[in-house]
Specification:
Order of helices and strands: EHEHEEHEHHEEEHEHEHEH
Radius of gyration: 19 Å
Structural class: alpha/beta
CATH architecture of one domain: 3-Layer(aba) Sandwich
CATH topology of one domain: Alpha/beta knot
Number of strands: 11
Distance between the termini: 15 Å
Length: 294
Amino acid sequence: MKYSVVLPVHLGVLGEPADVLRLARHAEDLGFESVSAVEHTVVIADTDSRYPYAPDGRLPLPDDLPYPDPLELLAFLAAGTERLGLSTGVLVLPNHNPFVLAKRLATLDRLSGGRLRICAGLGWMREEIEACGGDFTRRGKAADESIRLMRELWASTSPEGLTFRGEFHTVEGAHSYPKPHAGRAVPLHIGGHSTAAARRAGRIGDGFQPLGLAGDELTAAITLVRETAHAAGRNPEDVELTLGATLPRAAGRAEWAESLGAGRLVLSGSRQAASLEAFLEEMTACAEELGLSR
């Protein structure tokens, strides 16, 4: 089982270089596999969009909380660490031009020595996506095409360049260098709670990270991923499953996660970890309980 730590955006310290580097180096020293950075390009005050992971439908964080760009943040952390994996959770695909995003991901993966893993989703805040130029109602089809385009840009080494004709993007003779590390494609996992997210993971995802699901809903989503992968002619075992827990509960959830076929737990701080020091202490206690540093 791999263990990843969600960088604690709620503490408001992720825009502070000394604090966020301290977090990342502590995770690396303790033996965690990776850290994960969240994304909101812009937060719209008094949004009409429903946040799907809270009973009241409201984002449970202040509108003016610092949300550093996740890829810029991970690039900074890559330079300050040696082995630590770098991931997102969740990168909002409709906010990004796929040509620009493919270049940014390949560059970061190359310069970090292949440490990048992307968990991407479609986003829930209509106003944010529209402010970034995305079409909220067609974001699913656009995301599928973006993933295909990015992978083809990474794979193409033809002297004539890539020719791509899609519904949203068309190009001829496209060259995009550098390529990701060691000739690979950057792993693209799908995050979300909907049946569409589960199907997308099964069809084209390198992994699935269900959000806000538990019990029978979680089991049904995992089953749907595997059924969809099989129907698409893929090996369901090739779709890596990542589940979530809190740092204090990680040891108790590991066996449960493994029983569902998960290979990774992404761990967030508890409500009691209301300061940077408290969060670091929870990380230390978790690593000791899991035996990561032994």
